[in-house]
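for ur thesis appendix - Integrase catalytic domain-containing protein. copy paste whatever u need, i formatted it the way the template wanted (i think)
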Amino acid sequence: MRQTYSPGEVAFVDFAGKRIQIKDPESGKLTWVEIFVLVLGYSQYIFAYAVNSQKTEDFCLAQQKGFEFLGCVPRAIVPDNLKAAVIKAGKEPHLNAAYEEFADHHGTTIEPARVRKPKDKSLGELGVLLVTRWITVVLRRRTFFSIEELNKEIARLLVVLNNRPFKRFPGSRYQRFHEVERAAMQPLNSTAFEYGSWSYNRTVGKDYHVDIEGHFYSIPYQFRHEKVDVKVCADKVEIYQNHEHLTTHKRSFVVNGTTTNNDHRPYNHKKYAQMHKSFFLAWASGIGEGAIKVVSEQFKNKSDHSSKACQACEKLKVLENDYGVTRFEKACECALRIHSPTYTSIKSILQCRIDEHEIVEEGGEGNLPEHSNIRGPEYYKGLRGSHV
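the 3d part is after this line
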């Protein structure tokens, strides 16, 4: 019995049996690539695309390219029972989670072909046959140095194939698609699907980080010791719980490294995380070179987590808040010129308004007013001399 389909109803997807080789231009190594084929049920309009493998990631990529080629989406997709689409075939097939996510993203459904029911996928097999005959066999005679180069040639030959006249009824695949079927298709999602591999029921540590491929990513501390699901994409990591998005991080390939969003920390941890040289230098960089040098002086010969240095920097932040960025930066420059970049000296400079007068000359201590907390280099020279 001949299978008939209404416009926009279904697309059949599969990989062709024959592959094509890509030659590495430097090493000369030959690599086989797979040819993906999509055929629409009503118009029999065909799309083909070369990918590196039949894995789910490449399977989804090829279909994304297919939908972009069409500019629209069918109401259903019929794949063969390859592992990229179907984990376990049967009356109630177990679908690949990432493939289901792809279908959900585009608002379509997956209807796997039944096992040992060739009529379920007859159009898909016809599409594979035509692509093999008119594209694959032709291109296997040529040498390609990249998959991009190959796909350009496939696209060129697709135009020829889709414009070939039908033998049994008027028109071509191109005409039937553009004149009838396209209007009945669903709109294409404006955002391209981004493939990610899923990992389920990962336990969050007491430090509110979860181990993903040997790297530790933070989630809000309220989820410590709980289970989460993780989606790993090419350049980012997404973390969910019960289908609710918790956070997204830039993907890192540093084994045993840590990526932490400061907003995920409890208050006391946030405070401790700030007590570090890098934090205070980042703050100072928003003020000026004088502030940067003063902060660096606080950590001179001390560890980056020195409590004494951090306390001094916290006090300096208070001064900057009280007196403003401009005056604080000038006070830092003044303190550096008299070789006394301490909190006490900078505070005195600000209180005495010394920073507001250009009285400190380049290369000297200048004529600073007397103040018990402002001590120039001569003071320290005198101290050293008294012990000789």
